[in-house]
């Protein structure tokens, strides 16, 4: 079984090298601090964490993208193409056949000149390699959704809250409904606001007794002031909330989706650059033989992935809905800025799971 998976991995690895990628490796044991800084404590639920007496908290590699980006930003050429092959480790939250340790083979492009062309190159390469399996593709564009949020007529604090929870659909929906005035604040928030209306944060802190935890009195007072200011913020205009609802629900072939997105941009013009990028990507895909008239597109696609994708996203699925995606990927420009300490470069890539490729070919 493992031999068949290794054979598929080696074939994919060779195909990516034939496409111009340089093979790279990444440590299996990674510093936890970087991943926690990027994703917060949520990553603990998905990664294996251990303690090293000298290096501190460490994680078994949950994916390759972060270490590959770190290595590129430290000493990589520009432009660059990379490929890698190796195990990743993910906790599973239910019993079943999904492995917690499995091989990934990936392909990444770092290129400033034509991001949409790079998106199309990665997707078309994956589509060609996986064509014999008859998989179902799915695409999206988180950049469009982020642009829609940034164009809303509300405070920067509310926009930041929505952007922070793009990858948490339930939390995002709850915030949107509250900001639009369609849902009442939680009773606990209302009680706190009532108390803040009766006394200053400093007085409430002083009356609460000894401080417990890492937040200072200044941090708590600042947070209280933000809560009061948010409570006084007018609701999001109903037409804007409706447009965001329509965007979140948009699911159509990419060419049809482009028409609908143009209608939305008419009401939210700040989205125009993101839609121009979407249109350029469709042209680049068409030039590589991918028909936008049949390519599935969902505006919400990719919102349950690791939290570094910020543009084009894609997956390839088998007919069996119980299986995870056979391949997935997308654009992660912002991640390069975070890990590049002020420097950045447009980047896109994806991974294929050779165990699923082997299973679908009947090799297991």
Automatic annotation (TrEMBL):
Residues 7-200, 232-350 form the Class II Histidinyl-tRNA synthetase (HisRS)-like catalytic core domain. Coiled coil: none annotated. The keyword Transferase applies. Keywords: Glycosyltransferase, Transferase. L-histidine binds at residues 63-65, 90, 104, 108, 303, 308-309. Pfam families: tRNA-synt_His. GO terms for cellular component: cytoplasm. InterPro entries: aa-tRNA-synth_II/BPL/LPL, HisRS-like_core, HisRS/HisZ. GO terms for molecular function: glycosyltransferase activity; histidine-tRNA ligase activity. GO terms for biological process: histidyl-tRNA aminoacylation. This is ATP phosphoribosyltransferase regulatory subunit. It comes from Fertoeibacter niger.
